[in-house]
Amino acid sequence: MFDLIAHAIPVFVLCLALEAISFAVRPDEEKLGYRFEDARTSVLMGLGNVVINLGWKLVVVAVYAAVYLASPLHLPTNNPLTWIALFFADEIAFYWYHRTHHTIRVLWASHVVHHSSRFYNLSTALRQPWTPFTALPYWLPLALLGFPPWMILLQQSISLLYQFFIHTERVSTLWRPIEFVFNTPSHHRVHHGSNEQYLDTNYGGILIVWDRIFGTFRPEREKVRYGLTKNIDTFNPIRVATHEFAAILRDLRGARGWRERAGYLLRGPGWKPAGTPVSGPGLAEPA
């Protein structure tokens, strides 16, 4: 199966290098640019994600194929309307995948990796989790609706390819109609912000219209402060990948009964039982 992301890696590397050089040649005091240790961690997280996905993609294809073959629907792949429908179906699936991975702590424990950098550049796009398993259920309905697995995976790759290029401070705002419809660097900077008014906003993939429809859109106003509300202060890839899972385990060990255990897993990041101070090491809230 053709892997669009694997073939795009040289493009990613080239664009990352060009962006880093641009900051070296023309630094901007209002923008963070690059820090070598941070960019190195992001690249290592991306490489780890690629290696893990080598095996995991086989499971994904098998599950999608099983659901697709069991479905009474099989959409024609040579019909342009099928591709248009797939685009919007993938966008909706991504929106809810992304939103729930910010609002359910056990899912946030995986996604927090992507938000753990205090910098915002093209290397940040490569900072991906080593636990991609939580994404599987969100796209299963697409196979049930009759989209073949290869089409689903290809559209996912197209979305990821687009999202790579919106991780930059070098682009301010675009033409107003584009900003209204599409996810842009400005909109996604807001999504990566730990400013209180920016938390839990702008979940879209290629489009920003779902955020406008579901009330999660915020425009970029004040300067964005990147990272987590409680940063982890490490460039160790293993700790970046696991720190929130470790925090959940600590909280589960101290929980008083199943209600609290369920809360620590299924409520939002930062949730604590009534009367418990919201503090402690390892707690990483959404940014």
Topology summary:
Blueprint (H helix, E strand, L loop, with lengths): L3 H22 L10 H35 L9 H24 L1 H7 L10 H4 L10 H9 L4 H16 L11 H6 L3 H7 L17 H6 L22 H17 L4 H9 L21
Helix pairs in contact: 1-7, 2-6, 3-4, 3-7, 4-11
Pfam family, one: FA_hydroxylase
Membrane topology: Multi-pass membrane protein
Keywords: Lipid metabolism, Membrane, Oxidoreductase, Transmembrane, Transmembrane helix
What keywords describe this structure?
12 helices; 287 residues; mainly alpha
Give the helix proportion (percent range).
Answer: 55-70%
Question: What oligomeric state do these chains adopt?
Answer: single chain
Tell me about the biggest sheet?
none
**What is the radius of gyration?**
19 Å
Q: Are there runs of 5+ residues with pLDDT below 50, and where?
A: 279-287
Question: How far is the N terminus from the C terminus?
Answer: 35 Å
Provide the number of structural domains: 1
Number of helices: 12
Q: What's the SSE pattern?
A: HHHHHHHHHHHH
Q: What class, by secondary structure content?
A: mainly alpha
Main location: membrane
Enzyme class: oxidoreductase
Subcellular location: Endomembrane system
Domain Fatty acid hydroxylase: 83-216
